[in-house]
């Protein structure tokens, strides 16, 4: 019993000791925003921030696995838009039952991710290229299906998915987020699959010689990413009471930013779910703080771009320092 408690305590401690840099940034950011506006620490705003963070976290969890593999997925934002738009459309326009429409919307995202994974693994096409192509396809499907117009939905069950509360306190999107964080943390750190993901990203050839099923792992990871993006699209459509074909724009950048800020290496082989979660918090608080202060959304794009650039530069410098230490 004591051993189990000790292991759990060490796991919790490692979350903080392994992410001291990003946690420091998060604390400083919270203090600065709280001093800049008294609206930041209000209960309603905290709930709003948690909801905003949850959507990005769903996507960033899948992106973490993909970047650790040494790939990138630019299609996730478009899958968010496509899944949400089609799910709402299936209910409103085609009259499908809610459960069937939701399943169909998720499956479509899964298929998009599966296709990306199969092309990357079997044809060795760079993930950047195929996911960019899939991004255009998914965006096109969303716009063609909806005619470029948003589709409003009033079904109470569907709306509750993204706006409901657990025990009238915790927003359901936050509950989903916590569950997914636990599942993917376990998957990446406690299973053979997670070991394979790190092995492939760290040294693909060594992983192949060790008998790691590289193609299978890549297909699974891209499929998971598509499923998570589709789920994010479902929750977002529920929150907005509508399916909107333009809603996913920029979500892939926020997810990448969360991963890189959280310490996931763009070179592959390194990263952790806890870091990504803290990275998503930083991105969410920056967006929320800038909104509260009244900064234009156009300037927010510049800020996020600079954050990603700085994080990538720092990541590359870490790699250079590691090489220098090995040489010494």
Automatic annotation (TrEMBL):
Q: What is its main location?
A: membrane
User: GO molecular function, one example?
Assistant: transmembrane transporter activity
* Topological type in the membrane: Multi-pass membrane protein
Report the transmembrane regions from the record.
12-37, 57-83, 95-115, 127-145, 157-188, 219-237, 273-292
Q: Which Pfam families match?
A: BPD_transp_2 (PF02653)
Entry keywords, A to Z? Cell inner membrane, Cell membrane, Membrane, Transmembrane, Transmembrane helix, Transport
GO CC aspect terms: plasma membrane
Where is it located?
A: Cell membrane
**What's the protein called, per UniProt?**
Ribose ABC transporter permease
Q: Which gene encodes it?
A: rbsC
